[in-house]
Q: What sequence folds into this?
């Protein structure tokens, strides 16, 4: 069971996503193209901060979307999902495993944000009654990503690929510009370096 | 000599252009650059003396036309690149294409409207006076190419000022290449004016690329210019290539650990072959190892040797196991952590290892 970090035993949820096994499965090749295009567009609108900080990037993403994203570290138990996205009326909640490295946490968060941006709805696997039994404290109609739905293999594939692409941009070398270089000429040079690099 | 120079520079530009095209396909950036380099390379190959001799058998001086058309397409690629750099690649796309098509049509029409084109090497020196269509040909060619070279020269100067390292060096080389291109274009205009003014112009055949000042301007300078453009546009990619090698080495070092984790926790594998470059492949491997470590109960606070022991034994860590973890978990530190675990994992005796789960 995942529990809120610092509050052992607090019910969070039973299962967030199915183990995304795609080995041997059929993945639509256009998914890759679509994921890459989405990430390129996203990074154009919401560039990764330098030096990289997931919190700072999410701040930018929030401003860009006009909607809050809250991050919540949760205690991880083996066999359970390491991350989750929960959609609320006025904000999105992204949960991630507490007991792992920062880079891995960023990767998990990037994966969940990819689900969020793609608006993956998953497939319905539980009845409302089952969902209510499993999570009595949560209103089932609010949940788009957990409990009542699990994401499909192709959703997981797309989200994971987007996470890898986002983290690739996040860990990329800084633009080879002089310290303090700014203004339109520096912006052009930065884009030129990105085109050439 | 001229053949070797033109084919050498041309094939080098095409090779770099194809590499750029593959990269552009993957990243979505640098399409204009790929167009420019491939077109420039083809322009040079089509203009080599031996190639022109073959092309002339189809139509007199055809090689000159084909080469100039390819150069115009290269100039178009430069304007696409400049738009991309300016962050306005999506704007005025049709206008750019329309201008190119118009220029290509004018060049082709004025070429075929010219009488008495020579066979073999396409030298127009004697024809300007009798064929005003060729004046339009040269003016459109130099104007279109000159504008594109001017645009990239301005951008490269700005990049030299703002940039550092290999990027700055590359931009400097690019700018010098632009200067050689300007000299070539200026030489063309001077040559045109001189031949129009001369009552009895004579075609000058160049025995070598730098045999005379005129030959240098007409043959040597464009070759040097393209060589410098290709080198200047390639230098900034060297640090990324170095990084790619380092990533590949790290991946190799992590391979035994990754193989063990994947065998034990097959569910951590999500992207089969989707990663297309070295960094994406490394991040995928690191993410899968980290997912496996999470499943095995190995946290970042565990020392590499303790983490390796847990992975080998298949049992969870004991409560008093080491706290000598790495505080800094940025990418480089994470690479170091996983490499240390991989090293300890290889050193850990394999006897008594748990069979893979599931």
A:
């Amino acid at each position: 069971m995942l529990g809120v970090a610092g509050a052992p035993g607090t019910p969070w949820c039973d299962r967030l996503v199915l183990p995304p096994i795609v080995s041997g499965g059929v993945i639509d090749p256009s998914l890759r193209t679509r994921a890459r295009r989405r990430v390129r567009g996203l990074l154009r609108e919401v560039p990764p901060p330098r030096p990289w900080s997931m919190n700072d990037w999410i701040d930018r993403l929030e401003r860009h979307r006009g909607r809050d994203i809250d991050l919540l570290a949760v205690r991880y138990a083996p066999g359970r999902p390491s991350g989750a996205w929960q959609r609320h009326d006025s904000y999105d909640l992204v949960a991630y495993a507490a007991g792992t490295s920062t880079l891995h946490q960023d990767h998990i968060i990037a994966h969940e944000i990819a689900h969020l941006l793609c608006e993956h709805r998953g497939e319905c696997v539980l009845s409302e009654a089952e969902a209510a039994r499993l999570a009595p404290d949560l209103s089932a109609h609010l949940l788009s990503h957990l409990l009542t739905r699990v994401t499909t293999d192709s959703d997981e594939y797309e989200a994971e690929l987007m996470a890898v692409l986002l983290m690739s941009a996040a860990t990329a070398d800084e633009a080879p510009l002089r310290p303090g270089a700014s203004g339109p000429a520096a912006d052009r040079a930065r884009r030129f370096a990105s085109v050439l690099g | 000599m001229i053949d070797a120079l033109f084919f050498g520079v041309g094939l080098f530009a095409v090779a770099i252009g194809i590499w750029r095209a593959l990269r552009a396909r993957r990243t979505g950036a640098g399409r204009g650059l790929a167009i420019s380099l491939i077109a420039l390379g083809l322009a040079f190959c089509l203009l080599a003396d031996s190639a022109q001799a073959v092309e002339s058998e189809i139509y007199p001086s055809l090689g000159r036309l084909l080469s100039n058309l390819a150069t115009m397409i290269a100039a178009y690629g430069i304007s696409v690149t400049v738009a991309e750099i300016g962050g306005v690649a999506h704007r005025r796309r049709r206008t750019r294409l329309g201008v190119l098509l118009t220029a290509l049509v004018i060049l082709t029409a004025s070429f075929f409207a010219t009488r008495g084109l020579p066979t073999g090497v396409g030298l127009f020196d004697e024809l300007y006076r009798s064929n005003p269509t060729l004046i339009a040909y040269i003016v459109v060619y130099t104007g279109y190419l000159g504008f594109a070279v001017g645009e990239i020269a301005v951008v490269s100067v700005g990049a030299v000022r703002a940039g550092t390292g290999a990027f700055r060096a590359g931009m400097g080389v690019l700018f010098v290449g632009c200067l050689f291109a300007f000299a070539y274009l200026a030489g063309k205009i001077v040559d045109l004016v001189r031949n129009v003014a001369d009552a009895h112009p004579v075609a000058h055949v160049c025995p070598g690329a730098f045999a005379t000042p005129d030959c240098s301007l007409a043959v040597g300078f464009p070759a040097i210019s393209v060589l410098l453009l290709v080198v200047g546009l390639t230098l900034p990619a060297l640090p990324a290539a170095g990084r790619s090698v380092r990533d590949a080495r790290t991946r190799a070092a992590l391979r035994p650990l990754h193989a063990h984790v994947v065998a034990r926790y097959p569910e951590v594998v999500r992207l089969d072959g989707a990663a297309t470059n070295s960094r994406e492949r490394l991040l995928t491997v690191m993410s899968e190892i980290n997912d496996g470590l999470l499943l095995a109960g190995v946290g970042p606070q565990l020392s590499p040797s303790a983490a390796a022991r847990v992975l080998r034994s298949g049992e969870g860590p004991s409560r008093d196991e080491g706290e000598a973890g790495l505080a800094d978990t940025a990418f480089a530190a994470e690479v170091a952590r996983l490499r240390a675990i991989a090293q300890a994992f290889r050193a850990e005796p394999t006897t008594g290892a748990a069979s893979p789960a599931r």
